[in-house]
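Memo to structure team: turn this sequence into structure tokens by end of day. - J.P.
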Amino acid sequence: MGILRFRIAAREDLVFSNTFIEFIRGTTTTKILSIPYTNGSGQQVLFGDVLYTHLSPGVDGYIQITAASNQTLSGSGVLDVNLTHTVSATQGDQNINFDFDSSPIIIGVSYNSKPIAEDIIKDIENRSIYTFLNTDFTDAYEDFDLDSLSEVAIFGVVTGYEFNGSPYIEGTWINMSDVSSGNLKYVSVDQDAYYEKDNTWKAKDINGNISN
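Reply from structure team:
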């Protein structure tokens, strides 16, 4: 009578560490993410291999994860991936869960929104100097995540604006503490005729996100 024997080789599964990444709401972005692993035993991926897909391109919530390069997973290291994500304007934090070579991968995704800078209209007299207040900007500022306003910048022809006693340079970021200290001013023209001075401004929140 013959023997029927199975000889089963020991297999130690890959172990991936949980990783985290942040995206801006209302955008489509591709980011590179490195996922640490241990117990690699020569598993291979090729550049562009699709590891995970959710929904279709252009649809809010779309996610695709692909290999960022040709890689052989041996011992300990990182699996480099490209993560493309289309994010809705109201997306909440979530985990992306999928398997690679039967080993689970968890990517924690957090979201932040760009702040919104609304119109600021000030009425002043000719030949007067207006010193900006924090409330001039905070009253015209919105942020979905309730992140506070950190800095402001002014764009366009900025003749007449002064910062720290010197002519303001377009696009220079001004900390709100400097606004509080009265360091941002507008000096109106020395003339009798009515005029309007139009510029644009941008807001930066405490996370470094900048309004459109």
